[in-house]
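=== RUN LOG ===
request id: a7f3
mode: sequence -> structure
chains: 1
length: 141
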Amino acid sequence: MKEAIVKITDRHIQEGDELSAELTTSGSLDFRPDGFTVTYVETDEELKGCTTVLDYRDGTIVMTRTGKYNTELIIEKDRRHTCFYQTPFGELMMGVYTKNIFTDMNKNGGTLRFSYTIDFNNDLASENDLDISVAVKNQEV
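=== RESULT ===
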């Protein structure tokens, strides 16, 4: 596991309104032959103290958040998964359908991008694009 700088750009469209947010934080990258894991601590005021883990393996991402609010999303291209999501307002079960996943991650960092929709009771709630850039500190040559 290597220390890294993690930059997350989140864009989503909800009820016709496009919103975006950007976060740069410290984290880590664990690169393996079968995939990788990116871990970072949330700095957003509402999620402060939570840790997010993105585990990529065989084209599937399992995004887990632990701490004050626990969440697990399964991101798999062309599949819809029912996932557990905890918020300050309560717990939800929601559908997550992944449109695409792209990664060029290597042992020194790279990019992970994915687009997905969220629905509640099969009603579209939002369209989301997440772009995660990882730069390992003290990269190997």
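=== NOTES ===
Residues 108 and 132 are 14 Å apart (CA to CA).
The chain has a mean pLDDT of 91.
=== END ===
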